[in-house]
Amino acid sequence: MFRQVLMGGLIAACLTASTAFGADQNRVLGTWKLVSYNVEVQSSGAKMPMMGQHPTGYAAFLPDGHVFFILTAEARKPAKTEQERAELLSTVVAYTGTYTVEGDKWTTHVEVAWNPEWVGTAQVRSFTLNGKYLEVLTPWRIMPNWADKGMTRSIITFERAQ
Question: Residues 56, 69: contact at Cβ < 8 Å?
């Protein structure tokens, strides 16, 4: 009898945890269009639109637990030289992997990335849902695209795609 009660309790706890986790994950589920991408520099407090005033891109959180990000700066032009092709890397952020959501944070377990240093890492982001907007804050870190700025964090806004 005790074992049946214990097993029933464990099953109920697992179902409750699974439902709660699923509810968290469902909050970001879907496709999100990039609205703004600002960067704050830790040493000075300066905030700047490192991807321009009108960046482009999407984030897609799929029901199977995969996520895809492709974010690009405004006014990208086709490269004509090797140097220009190399410079284009600083105007894109692209990565994919699996994701989990807990409360107001999601973690992407990166499998493929524009920057090979990110492959195999866990990228944690804080977020707030504000109506149709997903407001995202990265932790302080040295971002490969603007490493010369030192420690920065990104402040990103997406709008739910229609």
Answer: no
Q: What is the SS3 assignment for 54?
A: coil
> Can you list the pairs that 97-106 forms with residues at least 24 positions away whose Cβ atoms lie under 8 Å?
97/66, 97/67, 98/65, 98/66, 98/67, 99/25, 99/61, 99/65, 99/66, 99/67, 100/21, 100/25, 100/65, 101/21, 101/24, 101/25, 101/27, 101/28, 102/21, 102/24, 103/24, 104/128, 106/28, 106/67
114, amino acid identity: W
Which positions ≥6 away from 62 have C-beta within 8 Å? 29, 68
Q: Which residue ranges in the chain fall short of pLDDT 50?
A: 1-21
State the pLDDT at residue 67: 98
Separation of alpha carbons 156 and 125, rounded Å: 10
Spatial contact of 136 and 125, defined as CB atoms under 8 Å apart: yes
**Closest residue by Cα to residue 146 from 99, 91, 105, 80:** 91
pLDDT attached to residue 5: 40
| Cβ-proximal residues to 150 (8 Å cutoff; 6+ apart), any chain | 41, 42, 43, 142
Tell me, what's the pLDDT at 13?
38
